[in-house]
Here is the input.
Amino acid sequence: MMKWLSLPPRRAALALCALPGAYWLRDGRRAFASALPRVEVRWVDPEPSWVGEGQPGALSFPRWVGVLPYEAFRGIEGRAELERDRRPAVIGRECRWLRYGAALVFEEGRVAVVGETEADVLELERAIASAPSEPEEALLSWLEPPEPDEVHAARIVRALSAIERGDLYQVNLARRLRLRAGGHPIALLARLGPPEGAEDLGGARFGFALDLGDFKCVSLSPELCLDVTPLGLVSTSPIKGTRPRASDPDEDRALARELDDNEKERAELTMVIDLERNDLARVARVGSVRVTEPPRVITHPTVHHREATVSAQLRPGVTRKELLEVMLPSGSVTGAPKRAAMAMIRELEGQRRGLYTGAVGYLGQDGGLRLSMAIRMLAIQQDIAEYLVGGGIVADSDPVRETEETRWKAEQLRRLVQGRFA
Here is the structure.
């Protein structure tokens, strides 16, 4: 059942901040939001028996919304290695999913409530109508000074030595920013993006905000991790290579061209494409794995990236759990070979990643799965937020340039913090 609302989309989205279990997400095509979950589960596939319902082409909306942390998919490293990992535990170690019966759908400046039953639609509509239209103000400030650039550059130097020895070809290394956060995740996402328009909260292709009660997250991810259609077509769109945006149009176009022509960036994305092809081949029909969209530059609000898409048809009988355990963590955010890269991450990053470089997203009413990469991510517990930002390191990486790239990727966050608290 669907019912159009008279409320402006942004007001409807922000009204959810007063309700338990609220989320907002953009899946790269349209935006959804909801609250009042029925139940929470903590395993990889929230509903293994669910294959979807409804007619082909009918509007699907999130049935389950959840988080799949990096920490939950480290089995490839080996039991002995994991037991030797003495780094302190972090929040965001378990897969967590919330079940919803209805959702807001944002389209062309309008918002509708769609639900499994009329009662689900009415419950969400009434809750929004009675909720305050203005949530608690969302604020961010530095909890501690950002890690010095020299510390991250030294990390990269050590990784380059391992690459030179032949231990691995590529590794994705991150640095950590710690902040104090106030306000609801949806309100934070709204502050990080354009001032108007609920369809563009955060300004990211895969913007995401979720309140799990004891844990909250906000993501400005540009990257599709996994898209699985009800008919078993699987796609992933790795990103490698970054340049900042410029205010001058000619300079901005020149930066995009330089990114597209850069041999190091081209080689880095090629390596990740090969890794994703190999992983997909473990669960795909023979001969079905292919690059469906070749490498190209994609422009985002604060950066340019190079991106490609790899697709495959799942073999009959492969479950969602099996697929997720093969594909996560994605090679796009680990490196190659994957096990060696994850061991290097464990050695060089002083703290565990938690949710960062896992995945977030939803299982739809149609049985499809749509996940974005958990990057450009604020992970919040109480009023403490962590934001990790990194990049891929290969043999010809320059430590100074790679460190600078982490600042480009944090620009949307940094502008809000400094603009409010400088």
